[in-house]
Amino acid sequence: MKIKRFEWLIAALMMVGGYMVLFMDVPRWWKILCITLYAVIIFYTVLALWLENRPAHTTLLWTYILVLLPILGYFIYVYSGQLLVKGELFKSKRISDRQLFEALGKKQRPLDLSNLNDHQRCFASYLDKVTLTDQNQNTTTRILRNGEDTFQEIKRRLVEAKDFIHLEYYIFRYDRLGRELIEILKDKVKGGVEVRLLYDAVGSMSLSKPIIKTMEEAGIRVQPFLPLKFGWYNQKFNFRNHRKIIVIDGKIGFVGGLNVGIEYLGEDDDFGFWCDSHAVLEGEAVQTLHAVFLLDWKYASGEILFENEPYMRPVPAVGDGLVHVVATGPETRDMCDHYYTMITCATRSIWIATPYFIPNQAIQTALRVAARKGIQVRLMVPDTNDGFLTQYATQSYFPELLRAGIEIYSYEKGFLHKKVIIVDGDLASIGTANVDMRSFQLNFEVNLFLTGTDSINDLVAHYEEDLKDCRRIRPVEFYKRRMSVKWKESFARLFSGVL
Question: Which residues form a coiled coil (predicted)?
């Protein structure tokens, strides 16, 4: 609390001093004093930033912001959470997560990797060492393609719920689809089913207080994640919960790229057809997925639910491979490492589909090296993105990828939103994390890593079908793009660290 008060005091001094210098007729020595105080504050902040030994480009970026944007730069730095990046950021959540996942791990049987091939064992061994969650052999998975299949299955499973329904979404809109789901949830509450909905306060800003009140009056427990009124004060506004989770009775789990909104059904005129992927799982891995929700719920509401036996009881299923639920966030920042290791374990092919491709240097290097080793590397991105910066920042990485021999495909049927990586046709990732700096550093994400499961065959088949709606970007054609486009790409790339 003392640190927060100190930061508020510094911010207030800077605002008052700036107003005095610019708008008030005060003695000259007062203005000199205010300017000197401002310079000392910026010097101290930059010095503290340098001592953290972050990557050089990140340190230089924030140094430029602090120095070149008077007063505003300090506010951007503080209230994007940068002062809390080292050690203190979401510390309580990090401790709770570790304690619960370690307790769950003690219940799991030893992992048998003997039936895996070399590249599968390479990645499975890595995950086993570095993640808090366990890989499950007693879980079945099924891939749901696009919005219609996904929400038909979700509605069917919600109606069948007996004990509890827990939902967690980045975007939950109160449109036709949202209202349909809410009506199902209200009916289940009347039947004695416990229902909890956790939504991100920024992603789901369209959920107004009257709508939330209506749900609460119907018996649905509703909780925002990092609400704005606290987000600004706690300097966590820039960190968002990007997860999409449903757990029903501890037996059924849903995770993937689809939020709740009619655009995910392809009914939004601006986006058109929506290409996405979701997964439904049954078995022991549902317990891990549920633990992710329960920990997020505890952090947001303070309510501890994972001590209740009904919520944490595993329900094994006959599995056909390894299923690993992995949650990452600004308190761990591991998703980049997981993607990097997948890429480096590949021996034949790497297929990536992502709406936002803003990689760091490690991912860029891994993809280029893989392609130059003769591994087939394919990247599928939307032809038209949902933002100027993401559109042109993604394109800015094409030249180096094309020079390395990487195949780039532009999806033209509609908006590509799936987040899928397939390695050698028998190792895959599906979930909420994009290949961008926001998913790597700022967002709370959750992915399924699949090893040798039958569902990977569906991911492969869907990828190949989506390729039919793509235009391959050829180097000669791409290099002829207008200079104005190149300028846009270079400008957008400057913001890669926050996209």
Answer: none
pLDDT at residue 2, as a whole number: 42
The question of whether 244 is a catalytic residue gets the answer yes
Which two structure tokens, joined as six digits, stand for 290?
């549920």
**At 142, is the pLDDT very low, low, confident or very high (cuts 50, 70, 90)?**
very high
| CB 286 within 8 Å of CB 280 | no
**What range does the domain containing 47 cover?**
2-79
424 catalytic per annotation: yes
Tokens linked to 456: 């990977």
Whether the per-residue pLDDT at 231 is higher than 50: the answer is no
Same domain, 368 and 494: yes
Establish whether 276 is a catalytic residue: no
Do 311 and 370 have their domain in common? Answer: no
Nearest residue to 364 (alpha-carbon basis) of 394, 331, 390, 386: 394
Same domain, 147 and 263: yes
Residues 297 and 217 in one domain: yes
Catalytic, out of 251, 278, 290, 417: 417
| pLDDT(344) > 70 | yes
Let me know: does 373 contact 349? Beta carbons within 8 Å: no
Q: Is residue 429 part of a domain?
A: yes
Q: How many residues make up the chain in this entry? A: 499
Catalytic residue among 97, 424, 436, 458: 424
Shared domain check, 278 and 173: yes
186 phi and psi, to 5 degrees?
A: -60, -40
242: annotated active-site residue: yes
Q: Report the C-alpha gap between 402 and 16 in whole angstroms.
A: 52
DSSP sequence for 285-343: HHHHHHHHHHHHHHHHH----TTSGGGS-------SSEEEEEEE-TTT--HHHHHHHHH
Marked catalytic residue, from 134, 249, 426, 466: 249
Residues 149 and 279 in one domain: yes
> Is 93 designated active site?
no
242: domain CATH number is 3.30.870.10
Q: Which member of 93, 188, 236, 244 is catalytic?
A: 244
With a cut of 70, say whether residue 209 has pLDDT above it: yes
Catalytic residue among 236, 419, 462, 488: 419
In single-letter form, the type of residue at position 312 comes to M
Which position among 166, 188, 242, 251 bears the catalytic label?
242
Confidence of residue 13 (pLDDT cuts 50, 70, 90): confident
